[in-house]
Amino acid sequence: xxxxxxxxxxxxxxxxxxxxxxxxxxxxxxxxxxxxxxxxxxxxxxxxxxxxxxxxxxxxxxxxxxxxxxxxxxxxxxxxxxxxxxxxxxxxxxxxxxxxxxxxxxxxxxxxxxxxxxxxxxxxxxxxxxxxxxxxxxxxxxxxxxxxxxxxxxxxxxxxxxxxxxxxxxxxxxxxxxxxxxxxxxxxxxxxxxxxxxxxxxxxxxxxxxxxxxxxxxxxxxxxxxxxxxxxxxxxxxxxxxxxxxxxxxxxxxxxxxxxxxxxxxxxxxxxxxxxxxxxxxxxxxxxxxxxxxxxxxxxxxxxxxxxxxxxxxxxxxxxxxxxxxxxxxxxxxxxxxxxxxxxxxxxxxxxxxxxxxxxxxxxxxxxxxxxxxxxxxxxxxxxxxxxxxxxxxxxxxxxxxxxxxxxxxxxxxxxxxxxxxxxxxxxxxxxxxxxxxxxxxxxxxxxxxxxxxxxxxxxxxxxxxxxxxxxxxxxxxxxxxxxxxxxxxxxxxxxxxxxxxxxxxxxxxxxxxxxxxxxxxxxxxxxxxxxxxxxxxxxxxxxxxxxxxxxxxxxxxxxxxxxxxxxxxxxxxxxxxxxxxxxxxxxxxxxxxxxxxxxxxxxxxxxxxxxxxxxxxxxxxxxxxxxxxxxxxxxxxxxxxxxxxxxxxxxxxxxxxxxxxxxxxxxxxxxxxxxxxxxxxxxxxxxxxxxxxxxxxxxxxxx
Length: 704
Ligand code: 3H9
Description:
Layout: E1 3-8, E2 11-16, H1 26-41, E3 47-52, H2 69-72, H3 77-86, E4 91-95, E5 98-100, H4 102-109, E6 112-115, E7 120-122, H5 136-144, H6 146-155, E8 159-160, E9 182-183, H7 188-200, H8 219-233, H9 239-253, H10 255-269, H11 273-288, E10 306-309, H12 313-324, E11 329-332, H13 336-355, H14 361-368, E12 371-374, E13 385-388, H15 394-407, E14 413-416, H16 423-427, E15 436-441, E16 450-454, H17 461-473, E17 477-481, H18 487-506, H19 510-520, H20 526-533, H21 535-548, H22 557-563, E18 576-579, E19 582-587, H23 589-601, H24 611-631, H25 638-648, H26 658-665, H27 667-678, H28 690-697
Parallel strand pairs: 2-3, 3-4, 4-6, 5-7, 6-9, 10-11, 10-13, 11-12, 13-14, 14-15, 16-17
Antiparallel strand pairs: 1-2, 7-8, 15-16, 18-19
Residues 20-21, 23, 55-56, 59-64, 77, 98, 100-102, 105, 124-125, 128, 132-134, 136, 283, 286 line the site of (S)-3-Hydroxyhexanoyl-CoA.
Protein name: 3-hydroxyacyl-CoA dehydrogenase
InterPro entries: 3-OHacyl-CoA_DH_NAD-bd, 3HC_DH_C, 6-PGluconate_DH-like_C_sf, ClpP/crotonase-like_dom_sf, Enoyl-CoA_hydra/iso, NAD(P)-bd_dom_sf
Domain 3-hydroxyacyl-CoA dehydrogenase NAD binding: 305-481
């Protein structure tokens, strides 16, 4: 049963009981209507309490039902809310923990609302590429005022319940907020019954939010201001502007017309590729934390104390993650000077955050106090997790892990931040390979959301479960990767860069390639990115590749650039020219000439390459390698690959990641394009992943 119905001395209590978050799926909706009708028909019932069991009042409409027949099957959420609002007996929504989206819209249909403090109240639909579609854009402005409501609707951000109480209550709330009639410190269920008895004794009709007026001295001006601000940031997302349109429709034309307009917008938005992509990312993030053969009840190890080896940019950034979550960190370096520099950089980072007003000065000192700098491995003996962030060379890792094996306590997790090396080889340097795992953070490690968790062949399940849980605590999106060169992200990006370089040989210039892929939505094209990271880094990796894969065909054009010392921004020039103190990438005549003469030497005929070809070759290179990664079981599902690219590589969120994008284009078309490129110069770089052809033949995609 998705809804429970009980009565308590003249009060009917309808309790949503649809774990995990009381989503308003069809059976829950039907249960609510049934409950309201039952209460109407029971003469002993004078009032109705609507509440939620478990960890939410309601997390909103059931997103999994979107674009399925269930979403529109009666009773729809509109019908449910109309039934609640139309009840002759007063309905009191009693809210705790979470009231989001349709959950809040349902509560807005009730005659009264009471809440426990600390409940998260939000209309987060915009984060899913849609707008509140069950009256939220109409009732919230009437409940809490135009400005506060528009802020909530357009940002989707949660507001604590105590901030939304009527002025004059124990929790005064926002100046014009009239969302909650009471904010209850004690037992919410008891308070709801008492409140219900009080209002149940009153004669009707009971107040409806829809009947309130939206009062604002200059509503049109404010709406225009909001529209201008949103247009600048919402570029590729239609949702936020539609939210404003819907609120405006209600202000100008009244509740019913506003509601109808909102409904039309919802139906249109829920079918957009942007909404599909955002929902894919929502579920992809949650799915990534689930590992097929590691049950969710796997016991985890206690992580109370962390150690980080290496206080450079990476090590310092990694340490900050744990400190931010209140976990003490022992930071180890080999030399005092490097240690002091590392701790100094962490302090500077926090000072910058304080300056921006995002951290209180006293919190800075509290965080710094969680760091214990040391030069001695003996100080790591109490650590529950040790993350190594030293130089990326197997010999160096060997020394570190052998030493860790001597000093770390039994059961400590030993993690390597390697971005390419073989985690199994690293684990073999210890006598406890089951405790070794890869934790590949992305730079800057205190900012980037992605954490690739590399599972070695012997990594214990409880180690994986522990690291995944910890990742959530330090607010990372963790994705599990098997062992292979470059893991998921870097293995794929190599093929992307390979194509970018071939295209320079064949006729493109760096600025054209970057512009085309940035227009597609990438945060930064491959050449600007390489100039930022340092071209010497890729050069070092390629040199290793040439030895390991002598048969693999690479363009040597980037080596030519590096031979001239143009390593990127740090040397004042790379693929582009840079001016002192200016990060703008200026197309470089010297480089463009170098590229043209390189083509001549290589006997490559330069031709005009279209932007469409650039995008296809770059993105399908990712897709093709992603497919191979899935075939080999390096990633367990396509959405994991998408999460890596959305959170670590600047792939446009509104396209949902490379694998979802391939599904959107259709694998049949992806296959045809790859076969076409494979038959052209440098076509040997395209070895079609068999699964693309297999899925295309079945008319399927990576995501079903
Ligand atoms: C809407 O309401 C539209 C209406 O305006 C109009 C309709 C006509 N549906 O996040 P968690 C699942 S749109 C289906 O790990 P937490 C989630 O996938 C909706 N499933 O928990 C996960 O499943 P699994 C507007 C949902 O405690 C499990 O619940 N609402 C939904 O960290 C636990 O989730 C939103 O956008 C849902 N609505 O956080 C709210 N919500 O265990 C979206 C959750 O299989 N939800 N699940 O992986 C959230 O923000 C968080 O889940 C919440 C709980 C804060 C509620």
